[in-house]
Amino acid sequence: MNQFLCPECGSKDGGLETLLNKEMNEESKDPWDSVLEQIECSVCGSVIPAHLAERWDNLSIEDAKKEWKEKYKKNNQKQKF
After folding, report:
1. In Å, how far are 3, 12, 13, 35, 37 from 32, measured between CA atoms?
2. How far, rounded to the nearest angstrom, does the alpha carbon of residue 42 sit from its chain's CA centroid?
3. pLDDT tens digits for 7-47?
4. How far is CA 20 from CA 10, 24, 48, 58, in A?
């Protein structure tokens, strides 16, 4: 697992990590509906999907930033259930 890196501000200071338990809705168009782990950046407060913040599956920093900006940033909030 890679060290936390915020795709919003570049901070390496991850904060609160949340594991979610929810039903998957395969028909949903909201990308957050498939996020089961999220990390809040201690510097800018952005809530980042863990797969981007920790760059799972050898995801590059550039690709993580691109996916963040295109899919997740506009709905940057903790998921409520």
Report:
1. 22, 22, 22, 5, 10
2. 13
3. 999 999 999 999 888 777 778 788 888 788 999 999 999 99
4. 24, 11, 13, 23
